[in-house]
Structures are given as C-alpha cells and as structure tokens.
Write a structure and sequence with these properties.
By secondary structure, the chain is of the alpha/beta class. The chain contains 16 helices and 12 strands. It folds into 2 domains: 145 residues, Rossmann fold, CATH 3.40.50.10860; 156 residues, 3-Layer(aba) Sandwich (Rossmann fold). Helix 3 links the parallel strand 3 and strand 4. It is globular and about 60 Å long.
Length: 420
C-alpha cells in the first residue's frame, strides 16, 4: 500500500480507539470510493505533443458531493492524490460541510508552460474527467499552482461539454465567472481565526509572540498579514528556494512587494539584520508560533525534536508525519491540525457553491462573518474534546469529524440494524 496513504490512515486508527462505533464505518473508509487516472495529451506551442499523467480521487460521499482541489505539480502522484482526498473527507466533516472528500492532480511543472499551454492542459483535464465531476457529484477547486483563471477555464470547458452554464461545478473561479468574494484569502484567514480564537487557551499574547511561516505563497502571505496587523511579530518567511529570518521582525506586505519586484526573498526589507537560511533551518528557528504552509512531510522523526516553537499551526496539508507528531506531543508542543486550521478554504468554497446554486451573491462582510461563525465553534469543540480526553488536538479533530461520518453511515443502516 502507498506509504503516504498508509501513514495518513494511522490518524484514523488513533482516533478510533477513543470511540465506540459500528465496524461498518471503518470498512467504508478503508479505501477510496472511486479513482480515475488519465493521460492528458496536449499540443505544445512548438507544434509537438506532450502527455501528462493526471488523477482524480473521490474518497467518500456519505455526507454529500465530494469536494477537493486540483494541483499542478511535478511530484504529484496517485498516492498523494488519494491521501489528500482522505484528508479532505475529514476536513469537510470537522467543519460540518455537506461534502465528502476528493482531490485531483496533474504531474507537470506549470511554470514551464506558456499561458496557452496551461489553458490547453486545464481544458484537457476537464475533458478527461467530465463524467467524474459535476455540481452535485464532485466539485474541484484550486490547489498548488492552479488559480482562479485555471478554474475559470475548467468551468467553461465543463459548461461547453454539458451544453449549459454550470458555475457550481468548480469553485475558486474569477468573480466575473461566478466566484466568491473572500475566496483568495480564505485559507489564511481561517488559520488566523483559529489562532485568534485559541489565544487565551494557548496563553498567547500577540505583542510577545514571534511567528515563523514556512511557505510565503497565497496562504502564508494572507495569514502573515492578518497576524502582523494584530501585533504578532513575523520573524521568518520562506518560499520554495530560501528563507529569511530576523528576530526583530518584518512587514509581510513589504516582503511580498519586494519578492513581486525581484522574484526573490533575498534582500527583502526587515526590521534588523535578516539572515538568509534554508527552509529546513527555518523550521528549527527560534519562535513561539510555527506555521508550516508549504508541502507535506516537512516535520518528521528526524527534525521534530529540534522544533523550538511551542505552538504549530498546520496551514499546509500533512506537514507533520505521524512519527514527528509523536515526538512533538511527547515534548509538550501543541499542534493545531491541518483538517481544522486550513479548512477556511473549503468553507468559503462551500459558500461559493451555495451562491452559484442560488444565483445570489453575498458581500465580503457576509463571507467574513459566516466564515468566523462556522470555524470558531468547531475550533472550540475540538479544543474541548482534547481537554476532556487528555489527547492532542489532531486526534480530537479526527474524533469530532469521525462522529459526524459515523452518524451519516449509521443512518443508512449498519450490521447492528440488519442483524436485529
């Protein structure tokens, strides 16, 4: 069995030991409901043809249509797509969305494609998977190296195939094509709201809290700006190439502007003498709050003991391995898990889907208040479960989401029902 998927299922088993439920539930969650692999053959600008491996996985739809992003990334593979769909199943349940989990990916370096080639690839994906997706079946969204324009092309292609406008088939679209206000910063804002809600519980004082964020893409940038505006000291930031660290802090807006102009974090303005270090070194740097917002498997059994932050908030998917988790938990670190911390993106995607269905669109204030109203009570419940059972927050989040999935599975009838 693929390694990443095997590791991910350990989280489920760790939560299951704290609960009583019908064995039918774990049997249903053992494997994905369905997966599809395809080869996307597109015409390149020079007239040649290239094929790209692509996947879509619908893990479980017990609670509703499946939902999950599509990433364009060279190292993406079936194991990763299946694992991400598994995580999405629990992410949707933990924040009580009427969705199951899904994910898709194409093994491609999107930066090497021209804009025209990128459009052909995006449309080719929908042509290959059009029978797999749908507004009431499986709703994709952007992920790594896909954006609102890619989603717009995909929604347009699907609408052409079914011969009618179908904006609800894809979320994360441009506003002019049925997108939602507040979607761009939703994941980072959701993480920010979770941190703010738990400030007292975590004994965090913004003005005395040093923050390091690994990954200065869309998610990391927006979370950094919101925390900075609240008085948190942003001491470290990184992209895929390098990291900068300054204990005196930095303004994420100024750093972002510098990177936009130069293409690099090197030389970005800070409040003191910034050091240029590696991503690995940044994770182990001196800080109070660490936010991994890049790739999975960044904190493992190799470096977990070197993590200095007291609180880790996962804005990336799966940045900590189970072995790394055990070391962090044993040393008293508090980990706010990905299926809760980065759920802001799928929550606002749900809002977009609802607006597309209704043909009625909300204001930005509506989106922000609805996101806050949705994520704060779930954060409180997960925190309370962790206290009541004396367990880590990740296991508490899986218990919370698994209870909802169990209720849905049981509603269809289980062995207990049919054997009486």
């Amino acid at each position: 069995m693929p390694k990443l998927f095997t590791e991910a299922k350990k989280r489920l088993r760790e939560a299951a030991v704290h609960m009583k439920f019908d064995p039918d539930v774990l049997e249903m969650l053992k494997y994905p409901k369905e997966t599809l692999a395809a080869s996307l053959l597109i015409r390149m600008d020079d007239g040649s043809r290239r094929s790209f491996k692509a996947w879509r996985c619908r893990y479980n739809d017990t609670r509703g249509p499946t939902k999950g992003g599509i990433r364009f990334y060279p190292a993406v593979n079936f194991d990763e797509v299946m694992t991400l769909a598994f995580w999405m199943t629990f992410k949707c349940a933990v924040v009580n969305l009427p969705f199951g989990g899904a994910k898709g990916g194409v093994a491609v370096n999107a930066n090497e494609l021209s804009k025209a080639e990128l459009e052909r690839l995006s449309r080719a994906y929908v042509k290959a998977f059009n029978s797999f997706i749908g507004p009431d079946r499986d709703i994709p969204a952007p992920d790594m190296y896909t954006n609102d324009m890619v989603m717009g092309w995909m929604a347009d292609e699907y609408s052409a195939i079914v011969n009618q406008p179908s904006p609800a088939v894809i979320t994360g679209k441009p506003l002019a094509l049925g997108g939602s206000l507040g979607r761009t910063d939703a994941t980072g804002r959701g993480g920010y709201l979770v941190i703010k809600h738990l400030e007292r519980d975590l004994k965090i004082e913004p003005e005395n809290t040093r923050v390091v964020i690994q990954g200065f893409g869309n998610v990391g940038f927006h979370c950094a700006c919101l925390l900075h505006a609240d008085g948190y000291k942003i001491c470290g930031l990184s992209d895929s190439k390098m990291a900068i660290y300054d204990p005196a802090g930095m303004d994420p807006h100024a750093v972002h502007e510098h990177k936009s102009k130069t293409g690099s974090l090197s030389g970005a303005p800070t409040n003191g003498q910034a050091k240029e270090i590696s991503n690995a070194e940044l994770l182990e740097s001196d800080c109070d709050l660490l936010i991994p917002a890049a790739l999975e498997n960044q904190i493992t059994h190799i470096n977990a003991a070197n993590i200095q932050a007291r609180v880790i908030c996962e804005l990336a998917n799966g940045p900590i391995t189970p072995a790394g988790d055990r070391i962090l938990n044993k040393s008293g670190k508090i980990v706010i898990p990905d299926i809760l911390a980065n759920a802001g993106g799928v929550i606002v995607s749900y809002f977009e889907w609802v607006q597309n269905k209704a043909g009625y669109y909300w204001t930005l204030d509506d989106i922000h208040s609805r996101l806050k109203e949705r994520i704060e009570p779930e954060t409180r419940t997960v925190w309370n479960i962790s206290l009541e059972k004396n367990i880590d927050m990740r296991t508490a989040a899986y218990i919370h989401s698994l209870e909802r999935i169990c209720t849905a599975v049981t509603a269809h009838g289980t062995k207990t029902f049919f054997s009486t």
